[in-house]
Write a structure and sequence with these properties.
This protein is of the alpha/beta class and 444 residues long. It has 13 helices and 15 strands. A 7-stranded mixed beta sheet has the order 6-7-5-8-9-11-10, sandwiched between helices. Strands 2-1-3-4 form a 4-stranded parallel beta sheet, sandwiched between helices.
Amino acid sequence: MFFDRPESGELAVLVHLNLSHGQDAEDPREFEELVLSAGGDPVAFLTSGSRIIPTAKFLISTGKLQELADLVAEHKAELVIFNHTLTPSQERNLEKVLQCRVLDRTGLILDIFAQRARTFEGKLQVELAQLRHTATRLIRGWTHLERQKGGIGLRGPGETQLETDRRLLRNRISMIEQRLEKVRSQREQGRRSRQRAAIPTVSLVGYTNAGKSTLFNRITGSDVYAVDKLFATLDPTMRRIELSDIGAVVMADTVGFISHLPHKLVEAFRATLEEASNSTLLLHVIDSAAEERMRNTEQVELVLEEIGAADLPQLRVYNKIDLLADAEPQIDRDDTGKPIAVWLSAQTGAGCELLAEAISELLGKEVVNGCLVLTPTQGRLRAMLYAQQAVVEENYREDGASLLRIRLPKSDLLRILSAASLAFEDLTWDDQALPVPDDLSGEL
């Protein structure tokens, strides 16, 4: 019932009211983009010029309510969507007066998520969020099947239809939570496997429609769904790539964030968002051409804090510089020379090589770079280093020992040594035998 959606758009009247000031105010342009992304057809936009005081019964005043009713009748609208959170009673009261469906911002986002879900896990997460949202909005819809009548042949199980609905919802929610717990366990097992193999995970996070999937496709050579719509990506995608000096890296594309992301969604998508919260490095993708760039960045930081990922290493990626005048690809660094931001265009590919360079710098802090001395009896270790593509140059001494100039992450070397039953301290180094070029210099 949650995933059948009409192909055609729905005539909708949009309502955006000035209920708050400052950073907490919703963006009317983003609201309209959300409606279009959901397949809606906006026919009218009701706004308030000055700040209004919300009412308990309808949220809006009786004068605004009459104005809204006139717009619905004039355009024969099938749906009224509020860019605000409505209580269940406010939704019911508005529907009774307007004689059409009423949806709030949370319901709109849930509908978009339902349309975008493709994988089994994604559909489960969306259904869980929708069930939690619906649980507070149950009404008596089929009283002709009342269960508390008396008399012979009319006695029921002793619970009302509303109680039965709530029980069925609780059972379904419990079943979905158990399935998602299994998914969470499987993801945790995959993360432990990557940690044992010393493979870092880099997650793309950011505001919705910042260009994360386009950048993901550019870096990994994938073809995941990428389109200029809000929440085009819902199901997480992971790919393995190879970076110079680092080796294998797992890149993860995640769902986009949005201002005032409903808490129900954060809870339902916790299994997915845990990929970001357990990453080695976060790439915070930012739409550099967006007017509300600063506000969107702050909203992403709030969500990262909510999922416990605020303290992870982070590299900001300012995307879409092709839409800016006189913008050039570049790496911004702090006082110590550490990369903190990269300016690029995922659409044209300009600056993507700088992003790979910055990632390598941030992940490759412990790169082993030097001349290793191997005796003829250590042929297995030599073969393993070649298999890891860690050997830059090889030479031989008169006593038959091999001189291998190697360059690889220390974590990879430790993994190889563990497989060869050796310790890092057991290795013999001779940096004088093969001078290390300036462009490959590094510390052991």
